[in-house]
């Protein structure tokens, strides 16, 4: 079998609204035999996922533009343009939030893939550059999110879990 090099253009991939952020699955695990996935993340002011953990995959974020506040059980830090945050396998609890007034742009790589499948399941398809408001987190929505997260090896924690 030939190893074909592939170019992915800036608009290729599925665009999904996830908790008010817009993610583009640049390279899904389906194309890498599950070895890795790359997700392009646009995070509006105030956006970002709540505290969560995933023991079975390594996740790295490269800050393309803007800045985000990363929180872990060890504390918090501001990651700015050009910085990289890496979360090794093992289940460290973490979250991030755009605390600035400008759009933040992150490039996320997960090894192995799987997070992309989770996003495909919980996300709402959108057009490139389209943002939907965050969903109302009523009891039913939270139950569905927790169930989907568990299906993909993730644990979800209360929104204030990492506040100290």
Compose a concise summary of this entry.
The protein has helices spanning 115-122, 139-151, and strands at residues 14-18, 21-27, 37-43, 52-54, 58-65, 67-72, 75-80, 84-87, 94-97, 104-111, 124-125, 154-156. With 164 residues, it is mainly β.
Q: What structural category do the secondary elements indicate? A: mainly beta
Helix content: 10-25%
**Computed CA radius of gyration, to the nearest angstrom:** 15 Å
Largest sheet: 7 strands, antiparallel
How many structural domains does the protein architecture include?
A: 1
Shape: globular
CATH class: Mainly Beta
Low-confidence stretches: none
Cα separation of the termini: 53 Å
pLDDT averaged residue by residue: 93
Please name the CATH architecture. Sandwich
What order do the SSEs take from the amino end to the carboxyl end, as H and E? EEEEEEEEEEHEHE
Strand arrangement, major sheet: 8-5-10-3-2-1-11
Give the DSSP E fraction (strand runs of 2 or more residues). Answer: 35-45%
How would you portray this structure in words?
The chain is mainly beta and 164 residues long. The chain has two helices and twelve strands; from the N terminus they run ββββββββββαβαβ.
Descriptive tags:
164 residues, mainly beta, Jelly Rolls, 7-stranded antiparallel beta sheet, 3-stranded antiparallel beta sheet, 2 helices, 12 strands, 13% helix, 38% strand, Cupin domain protein, RmlC-like_jellyroll
SSE topology sketch:
Elements: E1 14-18, E2 21-27, E3 37-43, E4 52-54, E5 58-65, E6 67-72, E7 75-80, E8 84-87, E9 94-97, E10 104-111, H1 115-122, E11 124-125, H2 139-151, E12 154-156
Antiparallel strand pairs: 1-2, 1-11, 2-3, 3-10, 4-12, 5-8, 5-10, 6-7, 6-9
């Amino acid at each position: 079998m030939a190893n074909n090099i592939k170019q992915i253009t800036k608009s290729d991939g599925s665009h999904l609204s996830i908790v008010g952020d817009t993610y583009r699955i640049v390279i899904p695990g389906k194309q890498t035999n599950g070895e890795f996935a790359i997700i392009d993340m646009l995070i509006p002011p105030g956006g970002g996922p709540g505290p969560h953990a995933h023991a079975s995959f390594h996740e790295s974020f490269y800050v393309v533009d803007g800045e985000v506040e990363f929180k872990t059980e060890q504390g918090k830090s501001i990651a700015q343009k050009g910085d990289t945050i890496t979360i090794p396998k093992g289940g460290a609890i973490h979250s991030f939030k755009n605390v600035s007034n400008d759009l933040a742009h992150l490039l996320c790589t997960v090894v192995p893939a799987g997070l992309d499948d989770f996003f495909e399941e919980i996300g709402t398809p959108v057009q490139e550059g389209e943002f939907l408001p965050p969903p109302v987190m009523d009891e039913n929505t939270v139950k569905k999110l927790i169930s989907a997260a568990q299906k993909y090896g993730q644990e979800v924690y209360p929104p204030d879990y990492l506040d100290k």
